[in-house]
Amino acid sequence: MESSSKPREGFSSGLAVFFAALGSAVGLGNIWKFPYLTGSNGGGAFLFVYFICILFVGIPVLLCEWYIGRRTRRNAIGAFETLKPGTPWKGIGFMGVLSAYLIMFYYTCVAGWVYFYCFKAFTGAFAAVTASSAGELFGQVIGVGTAGQSFFSKEVLSPIFWQVIVLCVVGTGISMGVRAGIERITKTLMPLLFILIIICDIRALTLPGAGQGIHFLFHVDFSKITPAVMLSALGLAFFKLSLAMGIMITYGSYFTEDVHMFKTAGKVALSDTLVSMLAGLAIFPTVFSFGMEPTAGPGLLFMTIPLVFSKMPLGTLLLAAFFLLTSFAATTALLSLMEVPVAFWSEEFNVSRKKATFLNCLFIGLVGITATLSVDSSSLLGGIKFFGDGFFDFYDHLSANIIMPLGGFLIAVFVGYFIKKDDIQYELSNHGTLCNESYISFFSFVVRYVSPALLIIIFLNTIGVIAF
Ligand code: PHE
Question: What is the predicted pLDDT for the residue at 168?
Fold first, then answer.
């Protein structure tokens, strides 16, 4: 059995740090959330607001998490124990681990659908797809319309099978370790994802009528910027950078000492936004070119995209490329989520990494099945509700609406008010080797006054205390 006295593994270089963090940031959000939100909320104007949110909330909280991780070189919970032993601050770490679990319960299910679509796209199953057959196929893939059927029917077991495959892939990657697993996988998949997305872009942008899609995504309309839109940009910035899930604390604990954290944070945020824009440029010109309406969410990814992609020349191949890149995005995001509990269990309870990975995958698989079986009210467990939500939505809403904004607020307050400025300065300047005092002063100001205020507004708004 491994023991915690073994030297702790970490990433090997600044480049590895960049790709690992980007791997976490890039996920399904880039494909079904960001481009649509941008297009329908004022295009370039929304991007402008988003960048403000990234600057005043996203990057500062990201830096707080990286500071906590690299300063302590411990997992998301242990890190707080090192900084403030025996205090309730550890609770922030627990919230992060809890939220990582909640997200994995449903994200492994959606990633399973993506894998299945990828498999189907490679076998040419979408060649003759029509509007109604696309909907039917999606229903089959997610196992909807199965009420009254037994758990052991093919329809019910198929999405569970793909969810298990996802867990096997992610579990294998994680059990290989930080360097041989996470680092190697993200360093390979992220560049490949860029190449695949650009191939899809070239095809999409040369379709007749592509200009309408570009216009949808990038026109600048400041009249669409309402307080509600600003809040959704803020929530998106937070979700995109995988904040308050323990991820960035855990990854930060593997950073090399020479990483310029400010620059890395900026590069990760910009590259992640670039991926979303490139995804939007592959999707919307195609959607408009075939006379369809842009949408968001599962409908866009699993119905509209197969339908419009399959209609264009080389469509089958491009659809396969598109689902392959989506699988990469979902997998690298899940690797970062899985690392949170695995680092916690293996370090705090002296369990080997392999055993911790196996047990976590088993646990997530068992609970995750409840998400898979509750995607729709006609699903096997669709009738069970918590506060009006089925299992799937409950996991999503509890993590995204409650734990994430509250956790982010507490992280900013913790670092802004309870950690000595000298200590932060020492860590963020790489022990005094970087001259970045103006960055640090800006950071300290924002983290004390701006980020917590904005985060508490999001939180109060989502729980309905204040409305816009
Ligand atoms: N940043 C991810 C995305 O955009 C969010 C996420 C990270 C979700 C990790 C799940 C897991 O999809």
Answer: 98
Mean pLDDT of 26-43: 91
Does any domain span residue 287? yes
Instruction: Assess whether the C-beta atom of 240 lies below 6 angstroms from ligand 1.
Output: yes
The DSSP H or E segment spanning 453 is helix 451-462
Distance 42 CA to ligand 1 centre (A): 24
Q: Is residue 261 part of a domain?
A: yes
379-406 confidence digits (pLDDT tens) = 777 778 887 788 888 998 888 888 999 9
CATH of the domain at 298: 1.10.4160
Do the domain assignments include residue 7? no
Which candidate, 382, 388, 344, places its Cα nearest to that of 363? 344
Q: Which domain holds residue 87?
A: 14-462
Distance 420 CA to ligand 1 centre (A): 31
Least confident of 5-9, 180-184, 297-301, 306-310: 5-9
User: 249 alpha carbon to ligand 1 midpoint, in Å?
Assistant: 15
| 309 within a domain of the structure (yes/no) | yes
The answer to pTM > 0.85 is yes
Write down the pLDDT at residue 4.
46
Q: Contacts from 80-89 at CB under 8 Å and sequence distance 24+?
A: 83/419, 84/418, 89/414, 89/418
Q: With CA atoms as reference, report the closest residue to 226 among 356, 86, 40.
A: 40
Substitution candidate for ligand 1 out of 22, 242, 247 with most atoms within 8 A of CB: 242
Q: What is the pLDDT of residues 235-254, one digit of tens each?
A: 899 899 999 999 999 999 99
pLDDT at 144 over 80: no
Higher pLDDT, 409 or 296: 409
Q: Which atom of ligand 1 is nearest to the CA of 100?
A: 11
Q: How far is CA 97 from CA 126, 158, 250, 407, in A?
A: 39, 29, 10, 11
CB under 8 A, 24+ apart: contacts of 85-90: 89/414, 89/418
How is residue 259 written in tokens?
A: 């990483």
The domain total for the chain is 1
Q: Is-contact 444 421, C-beta < 8 A?
A: yes
Reported as a single tens digit per residue, the pLDDT across 322-340 is 999 999 999 999 999 999 9
C-alpha separations of 91 from 49, 79, 408 in Å: 32, 11, 12
Q: Is 331 in the pocket of ligand 1 (CB under 6 A)?
A: no
